């Protein structure tokens, strides 16, 4: 946003240029230099900040769902949070992945392309130890995974597909399927090395062990749903969810049972009078015979009513709505 100068500041600036204290050409040169911005064509930014924020919100929901899933499956403390969301060339992501590691490749029908989930060895072996009945306090080991360990991890992350589907349901109706399980990132050439991918980094705490879970999403997957990654779409979606929640809540409330009673009148007596009661005695109430009665809903006065009969049953007719707080204060 351009800065608006006051008249005194304008006069001082003109005076400085006239006296030679400031050079107009140098000011112009500095302004031109500020307009120059370095752009790396190898690191093309194909997503706006608004879209990156939407992807971050989507995976914050996924992190919560994954936390609940792992905590249920492993019966231990689990905490997963989104650390960062960046767009980088695919080759840069591959170079950052440790070797060996745990790599899951998911297809997301009907979207094209594959999603990669990289699980840090610390996290992977903590998951394995909990699955096998341990405490989940073991860090990574030097040896590679055995066939049995691969099967156990594969089965675990196949069950976690439900969480991924639910997290993405706000932007696309997908069917995640775990296609491959790999340990060497060099074998994972799912897109061109220079292709832009979004990398969502999650910090995971499994029992006493912490590590990273990285999700690599190629541009080809996100391209069909880019319009749904805008702030306006999310606001409209949340508005629709709120309206549906309100309708559902109203439906449930309409079927809720409440106690309704009409007070014919009240009277205050002392214990001595109560002990002297006998058959035929009359108790005078504080309710005038021609005055309307008060009807309470769940012990809170809501209406003024008049008594009568309807279809041979004692009934009341609502005359006026009351302020329950005022009536109760009386």
TrEMBL record:
Gene Ontology biological process terms in this record: bacterial-type flagellum-dependent swarming motility; positive chemotaxis
- The residue ranges of the Flagellar motor switch protein FliN-like C-terminal domain are 253-321
CDD domains linked: FliM
State the compartments where it is located: Bacterial flagellum basal body; Cell membrane
User: What keywords would UniProt list here?
Assistant: Bacterial flagellum, Cell membrane, Cell projection, Chemotaxis, Cilium, Flagellar rotation, Flagellum, Membrane
Q: Does the keyword GTP-binding apply?
A: no
What is the membrane topology noted in the UniProt record heading this document? Answer: Peripheral membrane protein
Q: Which GO terms describe its cellular component?
A: bacterial-type flagellum basal body; plasma membrane
Query: Sorted alphabetically, which InterPro entries does this protein's record hold?
Result: CheC-like_sf, Flag_FliM, FliN-like_C, SpoA-like_sf
Q: Which GO terms describe its molecular function?
A: cytoskeletal motor activity
Q: Which Pfam families match?
A: FliM, FliMN_C
The entry assigns this protein to a family as follows:
Belongs to the FliM family.
What is the official name of this protein in its record?
Answer: Flagellar motor switch protein FliM
What's the source species for this entry? Oceanobacillus oncorhynchi
Q: Which gene encodes it?
A: fliM
